[in-house]
């Protein structure tokens, strides 16, 4: 069975926990887009691992983990993650693969991301990791790929061409001294040597696995509304976070995908700028942020919090072809008098039932809520869906009927055992 796992909101839905659970059941785990703008923390015993690039499935012995061609790789970050695994005695030598087609984040991408963001009147609130400029070079056909590091002559030509143009831009537009060719060239050739044992034609590897009926998990980073096409553009990331991106980012054909699982929080969060119709008023927002520990795993930035937006989530079900839902952080809603689900928007006297594409409409839209009674915090955590307070169950059933997909997993805490399977 080949499963794609996607975030249904603006990222940070808790995909890491679902990936950890599903990883145990599959043979291969692949990241298909994004870069080290994503991040999740996995705790094993008293050791905490933070992953930005390597699938966390690497912690499960015997699982083969790949960074697909759709991912952009900051070599420094990847080396740190590999060192961390090595220092903790995790044997990954024959289980970790990097697509030779994956593009590299270069030092100039990171600076450009930050300088451009600094100059922008309407800021996007990027993570400053060079993601946008790296994908832009990929599309512009001047990107540098993993395989280029294995061929010094090719790499030299590409880097020379790039620096000739980019250093002019750095100097003239940003009053930045630019980058020294030799330094970058040597540094990246060294990275190439360190990554050589893991470089692989992952499309072939994965298709062979699929042909042998092995199970593959394709993990998306970010979320549907950060997708470059379907997200709240321009407040999005620069890759295809939706399920379609899984095929482009791995080389597994759409006809070989068996199922798409959507992950969403029982409420909504967003990091960075951009419209967010159901955002809580600031007092309640701060309360819920602290309660849900809503601070970014990558940048530590506080996340904006709000009510569950069923319009968004339903659109996400449609765009991704989601048949199963994992609802995360349900316990954070415990103890509230009432809970709300956004079921429509009002704009200029009209009721809108589809997620609007016009950013002005989205910014000014007033949510129409269905209010439901809240539920108390239970003394003992339930161990099944039936054990949830009836009002919590009613809330979940409301989501299920509005989203028209089946809830198969509900998370009620950060531990693996705080998960209800339906
Ligand atoms: P970039 O991906 O660094 O270019 O940032 C673009 C937008 O996507 C910003 O609003 C970021 O906060 C957001 N973003 C990128 N990655 C993540 C993520 O993993 N979780 C949540 N937001 C993200």
How would you describe this protein?
With 422 residues, the protein is an alpha/beta fold. It has 3 domains: 2-99 and 199-261, Adenylosuccinate Synthetase, subunit A, domain 1 (Adenylosuccinate Synthetase, Chain A, domain 1, 3-Layer(aba) Sandwich); 103-194, Adenylosuccinate Synthetase, subunit A, domain 2; 264-421, Adenylosuccinate Synthetase, subunit A, domain 3 (Adenylosuccinate Synthetase, Chain A, domain 3). 33% of the residues lie in helices and 21% in strands. The chain is built from 12 helices and 20 strands. The strands form 5 sheets. The protein has a 10-stranded mixed β-sheet with strand order 9-7-5-2-10-1-11-15-19-20, with helices on both faces. Helix 3 (107-119) packs across helix 4 (131-139). The longest helix has 23 residues, at 152-174. The model has no long low-confidence stretch (mean pLDDT 96). Inosinic acid binds next to helix 4.
């Amino acid at each position: 069975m080949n499963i794609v796992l996607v975030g249904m909101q603006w990222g940070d839905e808790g995909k890491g926990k679902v990936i950890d659970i599903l990883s145990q059941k599959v043979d291969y785990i692949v990241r298909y887009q994004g870069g080290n703008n994503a991040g999740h923390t996995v705790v094993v015993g008293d050791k905490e691992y933070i992953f930005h690039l390597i699938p966390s499935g690497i912690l499960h012995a015997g699982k083969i983990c790949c960074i697909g061609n759709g991912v952009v790789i900051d070599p420094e970050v990847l080396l740190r993650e590999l060192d961390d695994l090595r220092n903790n005695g995790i044997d990954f030598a024959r289980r970790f693969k990097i697509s030779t087609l994956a593009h590299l984040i270069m030092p100039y991408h990171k600076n450009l991301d930050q300088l451009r963001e600094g100059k922008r009147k309407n800021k996007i609130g990027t993570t400053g990791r060079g993601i946008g400029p790296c994908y832009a070079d990929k599309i512009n056909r001047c990107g540098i790929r993993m395989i280029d590091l294995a061929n010094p002559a090719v790499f030299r030509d590409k880097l020379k061409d790039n620096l000739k143009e980019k250093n002019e831009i750095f100097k003239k537009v940003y009053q930045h001294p630019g980058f020294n060719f030799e330094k970058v060239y040597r540094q990246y050739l060294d990275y190439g040597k360190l990554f050589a044992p893991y470089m692989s034609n992952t499309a072939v590897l994965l298709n062979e696995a699929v042909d042998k009926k092995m199970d593959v998990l394709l993990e998306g980073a970010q979320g549907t509304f950060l997708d470059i096409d379907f997200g709240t553009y321009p407040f999005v990331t620069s890759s295809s976070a939706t399920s379609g991106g899984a095929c482009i980012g791995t080389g597994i054909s759409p006809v070989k995908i068996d199922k798409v699982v959507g992950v969403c929080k029982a409420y909504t969060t967003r990091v960075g700028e951009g419209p967010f119709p159901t955002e809580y008023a600031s007092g309640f927002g701060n309360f819920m942020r602290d309660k849900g520990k809503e601070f970014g795993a990558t940048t530590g930035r506080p996340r904006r919090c709000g009510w569950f937006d069923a319009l968004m989530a339903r659109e996400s079900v449609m765009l991704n072809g989601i048949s199963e839902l994992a609802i995360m952080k349900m316990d954070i809603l415990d103890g509230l008098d009432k809970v709300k689900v956004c079921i429509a928007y009002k704009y200029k006297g009209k009721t809108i039932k589809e997620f609007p594409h016009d950013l002005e409409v989205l910014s000014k839209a007033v949510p129409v809520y269905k209010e439901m009674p809240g539920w108390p915090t239970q003394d003992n955590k339930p161990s099944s869906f039936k054990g949830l307070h009836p009002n919590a169950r009613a809330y979940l059933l409301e989501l299920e009927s509005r989203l028209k997909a089946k809830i198969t997993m509900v998370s009620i805490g950060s531990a693996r055992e705080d998960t209800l399977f339906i």
